[in-house]
């Protein structure tokens, strides 16, 4: 074999070896880049989940979708706002005295029948509360919003729950203000948070930055909706629904209720 042929074969082998080295290096780079890409993708996904979770956690504290009972709410699911002296406080210093009777009231701040009940019985209810003979448990519902549309029942109930957050005495006072200023049910004036806050000025010390935020953010909206849902499945069909010791006492034309009759019934229930 000639020298030229031997050199030609060595050159071909060298070129083949170099090409194989280049192919192996290229394959190694691809594998390395693939691994790095997978790591970046996983890290990116983790960061994305962290942002979503962070936003979800952050939003949940401010969103009205969170069910937040007002301070002092009682009963199953904490859906009841109590008003009046507790049994313990009513008996303090008065050994042998019976505890307060419970009046349960399902009300809607847009409901004209509820306003009528409040206007007629307000003074008597307060008297029985203040003497420790009766305690009222309020269930706030939104039946008029459901029947006529609008959001005034919900907005007013949320605002009343915000007043409860401040002080139970503020709830009672603001509750009464809302019924005194109730508009015709077809006029959804309580849908305006500004009006609700302006009316709250009539209750000394109620309007604070915290109260404003509570009203404007709808802090207790989900709580009100839950209260209304429970009412819708309770078997009661209208507002106001008024129970004394669990028995309906209002709305039967054959057995009309008067303030004096309510007093007698409370005193009889306390004795019996």
Automatic annotation (TrEMBL):
- Pfam families, A to Z: Thioredoxin_4
Q: Which parts pass through the membrane? A: 32-53
Task: Name the chain's protein.
Answer: Thioredoxin domain-containing protein
Name the keywords, alphabetized: Disulfide bond, Membrane, Oxidoreductase, Redox-active center, Signal, Transmembrane, Transmembrane helix
Tell me where in this chain the Thioredoxin-like fold domain is found. Answer: 98-264
Instruction: Give the InterPro entries listed for this entry.
Output: Thioredoxin-like_fold, Thioredoxin-like_sf
Q: Where is the composition biased (Basic and acidic residues)?
A: 1-24, 85-95
* Disordered: region residues: 1-29, 55-97
Q: Which family does it belong to?
A: Belongs to the thioredoxin family. DsbA subfamily.
């Amino acid at each position: 074999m000639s020298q030229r042929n031997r050199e030609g074969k060595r050159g071909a082998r060298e070129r083949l070896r170099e090409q194989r080295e280049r192919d192996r290096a290229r394959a190694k780079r691809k594998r390395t880049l693939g691994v790095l890409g997978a790591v970046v993708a996983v890290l990116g996904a983790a960061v994305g989940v962290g942002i979503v979770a962070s936003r979800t956690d952050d939003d949940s504290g401010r969103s009205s979708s969170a069910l937040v009972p007002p301070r002092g709410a009682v009963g199953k699911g904490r859906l009841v706002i109590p008003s009046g002296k507790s049994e313990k406080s009513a008996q303090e210093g008065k050994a042998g005295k019976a505890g307060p009777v419970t009046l349960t009231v399902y009300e809607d701040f847009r409901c004209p029948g509820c306003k009528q009940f409040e206007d007629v019985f307000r003074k008597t209810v307060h008297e029985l509360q203040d003497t420790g003979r009766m305690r009222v448990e309020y269930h706030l519902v939104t039946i008029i919003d459901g029947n006529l549309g609008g959001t005034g029942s919900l907005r007013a109930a949320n605002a009343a729950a915000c007043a409860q957050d401040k002080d139970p005495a503020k709830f009672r006072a603001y509750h009464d203000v809302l019924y005194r200023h109730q508009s015709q049910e077809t006029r959804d004036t309580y849908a305006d948070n500004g009006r609700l806050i302006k009316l709250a000025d009539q209750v000394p010390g109620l309007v604070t930055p915290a109260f404003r935020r509570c009203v404007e953010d709808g802090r207790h909206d989900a709580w009100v909706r839950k209260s209304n849902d429970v009412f819708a499945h309770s078997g009661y069909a209208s507002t106001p629904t008024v129970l004394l010791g669990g028995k309906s006492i209002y709305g039967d034309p054959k057995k009309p209720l008067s303030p004096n009759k309510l007093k007698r019934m409370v005193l009889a229930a306390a004795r019996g």
